[in-house]
Design a protein that fits this description.
The complex is a heterodimer of chains A (about 120) and B (about 120).
Chain A lengths: L4 E3 L2 E4 L5 E6 L6 E8 L3 E9 L2 E5 L6 E5 L5 E5 L8 E8 L12 E2 L3 E5 L1
Parallel strand pairs in A: 2-11
Antiparallel strand pairs in A: 1-3, 3-8, 4-5, 4-9, 5-6, 7-8, 9-10, 9-11
Chain B lengths: L2 E3 L4 E5 L4 E3 L2 E3 L5 E8 L6 E7 L6 E3 L2 E6 L4 E6 L8 E9 L11 E2 L3 E6 L1
Parallel strand pairs in B: 2-12
Antiparallel strand pairs in B: 1-4, 3-9, 5-6, 5-10, 7-8, 8-9, 10-11, 10-12
The chains are: A mainly beta (about 120), B mainly beta (about 120).
């Protein structure tokens, strides 16, 4: 079956602009998480969505936002881009149930590499 | 707060050598999950293993093996007879049980270990 699909793969934006990244999870997966990867900070959790609701949020400024659609596809948006937002943004999907204690793990996409100039 | 430490940053070995990647974690939860992921140059994080906190059995999968020891809060990964294709960045990660919000709380990653396997 198809894996996690992220689009676009590469993006170059100018400071002050905004950007929207897209993630299509594995069919049947209802949980989508986003991570930012930079050389300095490593992999950091941005947020997680389940059934169109943000279920968990990392420690990022309000310029970073996301949403999930009824088909579980998710988008994240970064407004007023800064040079420090240059990173690989990774999306992960998981076959989670609601309030289950079993963590089935996460399947990651190939990421969107964002460069802010 | 949860934390994952991968003290080794870069390891270089010659093909066919065995190599162990160390991972030490911190958590206050009694229920948690540990993961190892591999990141090749393409960027995608490839899932290698998931282990829950109640299962301390070591696991072997082909050339890969994992040693989970709660007493030392470690979850080490050994590659036996390394190959050039094993060259990648390896991440250890921790996820606590989701508590009231559900199971899939965030993954906390270590900084990663860059493994280079030379022919």
């Amino acid at each position: 079956k198809a894996g996690v699909t992220q689009t676009p793969r590469y993006l170059i934006k100018t400071r002050g602009q905004q950007v929207t990244l897209s993630c299509s999870p594995i069919s049947g997966h209802r949980s989508v998480s986003w991570y930012q990867q930079t050389p300095g900070q490593g992999l950091q959790f941005l947020f997680e969505y389940f059934s169109e609701t943000q279920r968990n949020k990392g420690n990022f400024p309000g310029r970073f936002s996301g949403r999930q659609f009824s088909n579980s596809r998710s988008e994240m948006n970064v407004s007023t881009l800064e040079l420090g937002d240059s990173a690989l943004y990774l999306c992960a999907s998981s076959p989670t149930g609601h309030r289950t204690l079993i963590n089935y793990g996460y399947t990651f996409g190939s990421g969107t590499r964002l460069t802010v100039v | 707060a949860q934390k994952v430490t991968q003290a080794q940053t870069e390891i270089s070995v010659v093909e066919k050598e065995d190599v162990t990647l160390d991972c030490v974690y911190e958590t206050r939860d009694t229920t948690y999950y540990l993961f190892w992921y591999k990141q090749p140059p393409s960027g995608e994080l490839v899932f290698l293993i998931r282990r829950n906190s109640f299962d301390e059995q070591n696991e072997i999968s082909g050339r890969y093996s994992w040693n989970f020891q709660k007493s030392t809060s470690s979850f080490n990964f050994t590659i036996t007879a390394s190959q050039v294709v094993d060259s990648a960045v390896y991440f250890c990660a921790l996820s606590e049980a989701g508590g009231t919000t559900g199971a899939n709380s965030k993954l906390t990653f270590g900084k990663g270990i860059t493994l280079s396997v030379r022919p």
